[in-house]
Amino acid sequence: xxxxxxxxxxxxxxxxxxxxxxxxxxxxxxxxxxxxxxxxxxxxxxxxxxxxxxxxxxxxxxxxxxxxxxxxxxxxxxxxxxxxxxxxxxxxxxxxxxxxxxxxxxxxxxxxxxxxxxxxxxxxxxxxxxxxxxxxxxxxxxxxxxxxxxxxxxxxxxxxxxxxxxxxxxxxxxxxxxxxxxxxxxxxxxxxxxxxxxxxxxxxxxxxxxxxxxxxxxxxxxxxxxxxxxxxxxxxxxxxxxxxxxxxxxxxxx
Length: 254
Ligand SMILES: NC(=O)c1ccc[n+]([C@@H]2O[C@H](COP(=O)([O-])OP(=O)(O)OC[C@H]3O[C@@H](n4cnc5c(N)ncnc54)[C@H](OP(=O)(O)O)[C@@H]3O)[C@@H](O)[C@H]2O)c1
Description:
Layout: E1 2-6, H1 11-22, E2 26-31, H2 34-40, H3 43-46, E3 50-53, H4 59-68, E4 73-76, H5 91-109, E5 114-118, H6 133-136, H7 142-151, E6 159-163, E7 168-169, E8 187-190, H8 208-217, E9 222-223, H9 224-234, E10 245-250
Parallel strand pairs: 1-2, 1-4, 2-3, 4-5, 5-6, 6-10, 7-9
Antiparallel strand pairs: 8-10
Bound molecules: NADP nicotinamide-adenine-dinucleotide phosphate (NAP).
């Protein structure tokens, strides 16, 4: 597929680039600074991609990039959610703009585009309940309004999926194609975290599910490379089992 990658200079974005190339995709990187991107990439990788400089709050620029390069899919890793419940970041504004650009480009192309967005563990459901994990551990709450926005879209507006990782750590700072990972492929699940460890502690009044969520959280640490590989592999096909789903993941060794 031809993919517009928004946020290619970030921790995940810079690892998505070689993963997408490894899985046979063509990549158009949408970045605020093309110089920064060039400084982060070896020439052997930089020469394999197209680069568009622009801001992820600029709907017209992103839409034009999608249409000009005839992109079939978009991956957006741009912007970072504020940690504290009272914190504010520019992620909601970026997210809304990317959604609008992808939706409008799909309308002009006559079919919805495939898109991967990023959130966090907190927008997955506590297994067996209709409550989100962030109801119990209220951090990175801005992701909640982003998922609400996707779920409120009219049918066939965007063929979206939302990756919901816990902490992601780097395996390496080497950006090479083809990519190699020392870690196994992720185990994934829609809507709830896979391999959740429940405990009698959840019945402790008021704080039970918060305690169990906090105990589980460490187990959901994965690597940036594993998540990049997961998205790049999913985009090998136009049909995805993760369509209109939030997706949780765990390293099978945990
Ligand atoms: N890292 C984790 O452990 C983790 C865990 C769970 C969820 N997440 C979520 O995953 C996403 C990616 O995380 P990350 O660690 O890769 O973040 P990151 O390293 O901070 O990267 C953020 C990217 O967004 C770009 N960006 C910010 N504002 C922009 C704008 N207005 N226009 C264009 N680009 C803009 C930055 O570009 P510049 O280089 O120009 O600043 C950078 O490339 C975030 O939404 C984060 O909340 C991360």
